[in-house]
């Protein structure tokens, strides 16, 4: 069975999976998320589709209409494709058939399922497209759109990673230091969480240990202004706010070895020493900085936040997009750093060392930026304007501009200048940071280090941002989500798990209640929680000791997976790819659950079956210990409870580098605690989504869950398909889903206008995956039916025209490109602080 994590409703991903499956490439592809679909060969029913219809209607077609059975357009494409797989000789006819009109029809509007499947087929069967010009053009377009998917498919099926050797010096991990101009928020928690998990992991590996540095970035104009407005000194305000950060980190169980503050004496000494080094090397000179200054806001406004408006007298005025206040062009004397000397040098370095910046696309962005040429960098501001700054050594008139001060904190934490060699923390093993500050860390910071003759950090891990319900989190949208509230509501460890499972360094994570509850109920309570419960409860282990090990031939594959898991997790940890580690761990959890399900130890009651039952439960117990140990950094409190209080694992086994199957001694007493690890969040909708509602009661058998998910998929797809169908306008739909032990029933109610010509519903009594019944209640209000022509016209008027759709698609593509470009250009040197 191949499993794939898909974005909910992302049929394209499913098709891609199939393509991967057919072409025997990487059957396990981890995608964006949210819905786990388990595909078993031969379990899905199909019906006709536009492709099949088109092909079958062609004169002398080699294709037959697939009989209407059940399912939706997606399913039908799948059966069509599977047919093709079975009869590859049909492929040339297929390609010839789609060349021309058909493709045009499909490509006018949005990027649709058919595109993906055809793409997959083309990729699989016809690498040479030269005989098909339309197809070639289309293929190029689609290829561009799905290039990330393709890249994922091109990866080898499954890599086996050896555990990396233990470091000889402590693993030194840092977070950015956080501004003190606001309360800690989810972004701060998230970055620190990633670093905390990596540090905890390395503390469980080998003897050299690990060291985590986090803290606050306290200098700058905004801090000075906010403190003045509050009638406080900047230092007093920083003292107060840094305490709120420390409290916050305590609440989230974020452990650090030092909480650095840029007002710390040793840091001021370090920043000034680094400055002197750069000045002595001839890399700092006095120059003129010119830019747009906003007098009312007392700040330079970067180009990206600058607007131009025409005044009543016809002249143009620059103004701050943020405050609306006018700006004037001014020049001031600053100390400048010869950054321009480092562009090619750093680009070459990142080209020669492709592992330094993670993820890969950020590395490419940075190289492109470096190759574009660098300008010298302003490093100071006049103290007359910003007095809350580290003084420039030898020139009290100037204060250090935040980035040289702030970035130096990583060196201070390592003992620079006096204890740098003895502490053995430099070069840093990894800096963890958000994408907003990638350029500072990947361009300016290494340039400073090279200038001062210091070694470069080994790794720069750049992560995405958090959004809420699909929207950017921002104060003006009022959709910031409170991490404290989330932790109280869902539990701290489930929240830590969620934040890592739902995001990685390539994508932004999205927080939604539904997604959170699904992760809690499905991944934690069901998959992991039930497995643990089987191992620790008296039902299958009445003696409550580690069961006797024995021979279980069918466990061979699982045992191999358990032994390979620490290497895989270690590989992902090396890139702070916690999501990758979790996906790998859950794969093995799923494998263990399937193993128990198949072995059915609960049926082994006879005396002569006890040895086998124990041997099965030994495998399960070891699986729980191994995954529990690997999960300790992510969910420290819950996993410590599991390992110490429930499994009673000896302390010396809690080493990730030594982790392997069959280390627990049979007969050793388990702990007394048999509590449920994760409470399910019984929110009716969530329970339904998770397939936990049986006869209106919450139940959690995994079969029902799977059915429910499948049913919901089917029903949702029908609804969407329906909505798009010609002649149906203004449809509203509701979905009600119930699951019984033998049946999963989905009632989809649709109301709205319909044409008289509407075919009888194809959604009645759908049977999916055996025993699954999908019903459709369609209600059309009296008099709402409209004649076909009218309906068409109405549809035309109601919905956007094809032209408009095309325009929208173009605009969306452009916006996406612009957003990408903006991301790189977004944070100009001055933007964040001034
Ligand atoms: N002080 C600078 C960093 C100097 S490091 C030498 C700074 N501080 S910050 O308070 O703005 O925090 C920046 C970090 O917070 C980001 O790089 C990112 O790690 C994190 N996040 C802030 N908002 C975020 C989200 N919405 N989502 C995820 N993380 C984000 O920049």
TrEMBL record:
Residues 546-686 form the Methionyl-tRNA synthetase anticodon-binding domain. GO terms for cellular component: mitochondrion. It comes from the Eukaryota. It holds the Pfam family Anticodon_3. GO terms for molecular function: ATP binding; methionine-tRNA ligase activity. Its EC number is 6.1.1.10. It catalyses: tRNA(Met) + L-methionine + ATP = L-methionyl-tRNA(Met) + AMP + diphosphate. Residues 784-834 are annotated as: Disordered. Keywords: Aminoacyl-tRNA synthetase, ATP-binding, Ligase, Nucleotide-binding, Protein biosynthesis. It is an enzyme of class 6 (ligase). Residues 171-535 form the Methionyl/Leucyl tRNA synthetase domain. GO terms for biological process: methionyl-tRNA aminoacylation. Residues 795-807, 814-834 have a biased composition (Basic and acidic residues). PANTHER family: METHIONINE--TRNA LIGASE, MITOCHONDRIAL, METHIONYL-TRNA SYNTHETASE. Belongs to the class-I aminoacyl-tRNA synthetase family. This is methionine--tRNA ligase. The lineage of its organism: Eukaryota, Metamonada, Carpediemonas-like organisms, Carpediemonas.
